[in-house]
Design a protein that fits this description.
The chain has nine helices and nine strands.
Amino acid sequence: MTPHHRDLVLDVQGLGKTFHTRTDGAREVLRDVSFSIDRGACLAVVGESGSGKTTAARIVAGLETASAGTVTLDGGRAHGVQMVFQDPYGSLDPRQAIGSGLHELLKLHGVRRGADRRSRTTELLESVGLDERHAGQYPASLSGGQRQRVAIARALALDPALLILDEAVSALDVSVQAQVLNLLADIRTRTGISYLFVSHDLGVVRQVSDTCVVLHDGRVVESGPTARILDFPKEVYTRALVDAVPRPGWRPRRRTA
């Protein structure tokens, strides 16, 4: 199926980014990166630290400006994309109760009636597995998993077509990580939202994504269906990433003196 016949939420073509600093001069972090996401699908962008994956995500989110290429998002509609970061604490006001923060966000974006804001706040909290008790709490009193659920609720408040998740579960312990991943899967099934999932964790990528793009030194080295990429990688770099994932029963080799 060609891009012209697909229902694309995001289409990125020829993306490039060069940072200019006084000490290092020009540093190219992305070159000719292209990918797209169908409506309701999840694309993972994977690679080691420094591969350019977070820069690409920040450009899609409008937090960085591209040096080259185009980003077309869902017809360019407002609030079409929202982003959830690795550390949700940075996006939450520590002096503001969770419910109040959601109320304020909804008010800023045009929900005028207080009753509507209250019902929408309750709906958002319930959609991420929280309730009225959490609405009165402050970020510091929540667990890491609960804070990440609040960050997801805030991102969903504006009804985006695309949610970017930048290492959004990497700081959580395994059991909480599984709960949040299941939550994200449920939300996608229920709402038809699309995800751009940025991660270095191939186990997580296999669980959540339909397709993936592998970045290395700012370039796409491989892309396609996630199962094919991870089970039958064609490129040396991708094979190295897959081989580095610990297998069941894996133990580190003991070093002898």
